[in-house]
Amino acid sequence: NNSFCIAMALGAGLAFFLGVAERGGLLKAAAFGCSAMMVHVPMFGDSRGAMLSLFVLGAACFMMLPKRPLNLSLYAVGIVVALNLAGPAVWKRFETVFADAKERDSSAQSRLDLWADGWDLMKKHPLTGAGPNHWPLLAHEYGWPKGKEIHSIWLNCGAELGFPGLACLLAIYATTTMLCIRLIRDPSMPVEVKHAAR
């Protein structure tokens, strides 16, 4: 459920920029419609992490959006639609992300406990980690059922591949982002390349 919701949150950004890039009215409407439906999936899926990622996605989309009146108005409409898709139950569930320890539900608390255990394993094996795909094999040593996942790509990578592995993963994201931003800002780049970089 959570993995699917996260994928839909990512897809919403891709569909939004396909809509921005598309010139034909019908295809533009289809892309924006798909984006709206993908934004709704994390709300139906009740995935707090994916809902949080939608806020990050919204900020990232705004930063990369060509600041023309039409694009800004489409972005504003998208924000209004997304906020209206979230009913009271969705907002109530999302607010638990920021609940203090006394009010936190068991699901949220278990994520924090898993992350703490992943961090502990990183500190025990800082250079090499416990080995690729080894966290599920070691989860029972921390009191979890065998096969339990950490539910964080970052801490999972660090626990299994150590700090160098985590640094490499971060470098992949950082260098790709920097290169795409460079393409977007380069005035000599064709508009199609800029759309692809977004």
Provide an overview of this structure.
With 198 residues, the chain is an all-alpha fold. It contains nine helices and no strands. It is globular, with a radius of gyration of 20 Å. The mean pLDDT is 87.
Quick overview:
The protein has 198 residues and is mainly α.
List the helices and strands and how they pair.
Elements: H1 2-21, H2 25-45, H3 48-64, H4 69-85, H5 88-95, H6 106-124, H7 135-138, H8 153-185, H9 191-197
Helix pairs in contact: 1-2, 1-3, 2-4, 6-8, 8-9
- Bin the helical content: over 70%
In whole angstroms, the N-to-C terminal distance is 27 Å
Structural class: mainly alpha
Mean pLDDT: 87
Give the radius of gyration: 20 Å
Tally of contiguous helical segments: 9
Order of helices and strands: HHHHHHHHH
- How many strands, which pairing sense, and closed or not: the largest β-sheet? none
Which geometry do the CA atoms define?
A: globular
Strand content: under 5%
Low-confidence parts, pLDDT < 50 over ≥5 residues? none
Number of strands: 0
